[in-house]
Amino acid sequence: MEWRTKNNIASYSENVLIVYFEELSNKIKSPSLWTRYSILKSTLNIKNQINIAQYPKLHALLKRKSEGYNGKKSKTFSPNEIKTFINEAPNSNYLLTKVVLIFGIMGACRRHEMHSLKCNDVSGLKTLSLVTIRDTKTKTTRKFTITGKYYDVCKKYMDLRPKICTTQNFFNNYFHGKCTVQNVGINKFCSMGKTIATYLNLPYLHPYTGHCFRRSSATILVDAGGDITTLKRHGGWKSTTVAESYIDDSIQNKINVSEKILNSIQTNQTLNTININSASTSNNFPTEAIPQLHFNNCTIHNINIDKKQ
């Protein structure tokens, strides 16, 4: 380790590593600190049989450096923005981008998942396409369908694909209404978010990375009423925390929460009003509703009760 050589240090004690990570925290951010910690833990465990996972003070330092850190995340597209692009963008220039957007939103796809998608993974039926994602980050196969108007858009692209291709990759480049035999590169998938944002005249194009499709899909699903189980199954997440981190803090989500709270308050007020009215009605019950009793020719007998001494 260069840092040890520079400072003439030979040991790997906990105090030494605390000083090392304290200096390193002035240069890199918290996620990179944890990455460096993971690399160092594996290296020292294999080469020096030292387990730094048993250093509680070092672990506490890294957790303290993570407090209050909010990482930069990709921006998301709203349903209206997606609808506008699909309906208004000309197919002559944006058909490929439309298909990538549809796959990314409907299947919560990562860029490398779309890059490695094969023709055999897309089964075209009469009114829908069944897509199978095999090369996933979590090693779990996912499936999703494309239906309705989105199926028609994808069908136009699939019909334009060349019959003879050198590879089985599904996505081929598209120029001026024609598909070529060249595959779409993985970096081009990253730039398509900026392409859509540019067409829609959205500000701050840089945050629309290749991950914007996956985050947009998760946010739209939750805003539409999907629960955490549906979200995890949709995106193939195993961790609830990771799945929730993909949900953008959208305005629509805030509006839905506000309306639920407001409806709950108004419902309780209505119930209280009904209870009060019911109570007042029972207290003012009309005496005319009670039938009168009439006694005729009645004899009253004396009853003697002996008291016991």
TrEMBL record:
Pfam family for this entry, one: Phage_integrase
UniProt superkingdom: Eukaryota
Alphabetical UniProt keywords: DNA recombination, DNA-binding
SUPFAM superfamilies per UniProt: DNA breaking-rejoining enzymes
GO biological process: DNA integration; DNA recombination
Gene Ontology terms, MF aspect: DNA binding
Tyr recombinase domain mapped to chain residues: 72-259
PROSITE patterns per record: TYR_RECOMBINASE
The protein's name in its UniProt record: Tyr recombinase domain-containing protein
Origin species: Pyrocoelia pectoralis
